[in-house]
Structures are given as C-alpha cells and as structure tokens.
Design goal:
Subtilisin Inhibitor; Subtilisin_inhibitor-like_sf; secreted
C-alpha cells in the first residue's frame, strides 16, 4: 500500500513529467506545393487528431477520411478558379493508418490544387 507521502510524490512526478505519454497520430504527412519557378511551400498534417502547420487540418483530414487516405480519390469541392495557367506540383508523403503514402500530381494552379483535393492542398 502507498502511504499518503508516497502517493503525493507519485502524483507530483506524473505532473512534472507531463503525465502519461500522448498517443501518436493515426496518420501524418508532409505536403508540398512547388510552382513553375521552383519555389516550394511545405506544411505538416496529422490526422487523428487533426493538427499540424496545415491552415485547415480539420477540412484536410475530413477529405482524406472520405477517400480512405487515397490521394487519387480525394473529393473535389465546388469552387470557382481562374483559368490562369500557373502549374503547381503537389506532393504528399507519409502514412495513412500505417500504410505508406507517396503521392504526386500536377494541377494547373493553386486554386485547382485546393479544389481537386478537397482542401488537402489549400496552402
């Protein structure tokens, strides 16, 4: 049995060490968009829970959930995009529930990358 002093020491030790370790996210990705000049923008996205440097992690994870992590099947969202040709190369690498993911696609501009990926490439 723990005495009151021992129990208090255990509680304090748990608080000081941050308590129990947090679980790793279900899925994590590094996403990038590279424009025609070669400038690249990177963001991180984790799902389960939705977080990272992605500006809309909840929306992106929801789209990935709908496609069961298959970037080629991401749902398109309805939005108007200009017809200005300014190609971007979109890349995703990471894992979806333990399955490795390596995806590359070219879109005619950033707006189309956003629209055709359900918001996953909206950065």
């Amino acid at each position: 049995m723990f005495g009151a002093t021992s129990l208090a020491a255990c509680v304090v030790a748990a608080m000081c060490t941050g308590g129990p370790a947090t679980a790793a996210p279900d899925s994590s990705f590094v996403l990038s968009l590279t424009d025609a000049r070669g400038a690249t923008t990177f963001v991180e996205l984790t799902c389960g829970p939705a977080q990272g440097s992605h500006p809309q992690p909840d929306t992106a994870c929801q789209a990935l959930e709908q496609a069961d992590g298959d970037f080629a099947r991401l749902p398109a969202k309805e939005q108007l995009c200009t017809m200005i040709h300014s190609p971007v190369l979109a890349r995703a690498s990471g894992d979806w529930h333990g399955t490795p993911v390596d995806f590359t696609a070219e879109y005619s501009n950033r707006c189309f990358a956003d629209a055709r990926s359900g918001g996953v490439f909206s950065f």
